[in-house]
Amino acid sequence: MHKKSTTEEIDSIDDQSLRVRWTGLPVVALAGRPNVGKSTLFNRLLHKRKAIVDPMPGVTRDPIESEWRLEGAEAPVLLVDTGGLKLERNELEDRVADKSWDYIRRADLVLFIVDAVNITPEDEEFSALLRRYADKVVLVVNKADSPERDTRAWTHASWGYKAMAFVSAEHGRNIGELEELILARLDWSKASAVDEEHGDIRLAIMGKPNVGKSTLLNRLLGEEKSIVNDMPGTTRDVVEGRFSWKGKAFTVLDTAGMRRKSKVTESVEYYSVNRAIKTLDRADVVILMIDASEGLSEQDKKIVKLATDKGRGVIFALNKWDTIPKIKNSFEAARDKLQFFFGQMAYAPVLPLSAKDGEGVDKLMSTALSMFGQLTRRVETSRLNKAARDWVEATPPPVGARARFKFRYATQVSVNPIKFAFFVTRPDAVSESYVSFLRNKIRSELGFTLVPLELDLRASRKRFEDLERG
Which residues form the domain of 259? Predict the structure, then answer.
């Protein structure tokens, strides 16, 4: 077994493996009234909790898409969990229904989900409405937890759908049979795979409820992917979409608004907020949306801390800037106030934005692109060590017995997040102020002006020149 030398370890790069992006995948849409188990089945098929499940009807509002690896298939399936269809609807529920029917029309296969033991007039009505798509509908009778319930479920055969399946999404009963039924009815002839060297740049749109997150998502995608409504908390699941800007591929994630814990009253909202926080693990850049007319909140500060702790780039977007009176230096004043509020984050860009009108979107995207470039930037080890020696020689640490140490060598540990390690004789002797000095030097002179970076001190008696000779 080959053992890496120290210099090989220093120069090793944690490159991302090639990712595959699919186009032309067959679309399978899950449809039905609220609370029949659509999201439970969606999660069961994916083998993960991607959609929020709660006994409260109407939890899913925006359609949730995910690539699904169906056993025996030559390529993935695009699986879509749609919002619940209702006969009596308010304005928001009308928007939910419109998007659900749009996916039903476009889908290659529709899983019409009903409850095995609770048939309602809504089920009867939607069965009639779906009959025009009968050739691509599979009637899925859910909550058929036992063979005894199958007998009752056969009453649904009177609706005239040729393809039927009796399942229990919660317990996994007959899921294999349903998958075989789906596999036999799909066509992958239009599917094609594209290798991407680094995959999409992933943007997470975060902020308080009703600051314009979904409006920005729809603006970037050029379609109403996420429902926009004046009622705070409209978005519950994480809604995502892909788009291209100046030849670069992006995935954008619209998250639920985050409020103070004392105001999070529904369990659905609790899970929505937790899902939003976990989105940080998938993101490269966080766009923190702030209502320019309302200013900052403690929740904004918490979002930023969570993001920077994970090494994510953060862009402060002062949305609804078009509503701010045009007073000289008003933006500069707002920017200075924000940077004062966040203390050590003077490096993070602050931008005016009107997601509704599109003003400032190009600047936002160019900044996100530059930020991603810095997050994936790697400095040559020899250049880093020369620069570090120059900094220490030009600005030596404070003199004193307790503060005495010698710099040995430095290495960049990782990209995205950016991490460096400086090896010194006595790490405990290096003051926090001197660490800040070195961090600022890395940021300003090595091209990391927009992103957070971590600097770790480690003990070593060896010099970089000795490691190179070794």
Answer: 199-375
Q: In what side-by-side order are the strands of the sheet with 418-424?
A: 407-414, 418-424, 453-459
Residue 442 shares a structural domain with residue 348: no
Evaluate whether 206 touches 213 at the Cβ level (below 8 Å).
Answer: yes
pLDDT value at residue 318: 96
Residue 267 and residue 308 in one domain: yes
The DSSP H or E segment spanning 221 is helix 213-221
List all residues 6 or more positions away from 282 whose beta carbon is below 8 Å from its beta carbon: 202, 204, 253
**Domain limit, last residue, from 312, 344, 375:** 375
With a cut of 50, list the residues of the chain below it in pLDDT. Answer: 1-18, 50-60, 197, 226-237, 257-272
DSSP state of 168: B
User: What would the two tokens of residue 197 be?
Assistant: 């060297």
pLDDT tens-digit readout, 94-134: 777 788 888 999 999 999 999 988 888 889 988 999 999 99
Tens of pLDDT, residues 301-343 = 888 888 999 999 999 999 999 999 988 899 999 998 888 888 7
Q: Which two tokens stand for residue 181?
A: 């039924």
Q: Are residues 429 and 365 in the same domain?
A: no
The string of DSSP letters for 360-388 reads THHHHHHHHHHHHHHHT----HHHHHHHH
Question: Is 8 within the bounds of a domain?
Answer: no
Tell me which residue has tokens 């399946």.
165
- Any idea which residue has 């009177």 for tokens? 158
Q: Which two tokens stand for residue 332?
A: 């500069």
158, with CB counted inside 10 A (0-12, 13-18, 19+), is: exposed
Task: Specify whether 337 is located in the same domain as 220.
Answer: yes
d(CA 319, CA 1): 56
Q: Are 415 and 378 in contact (CB under 8 A)?
A: yes
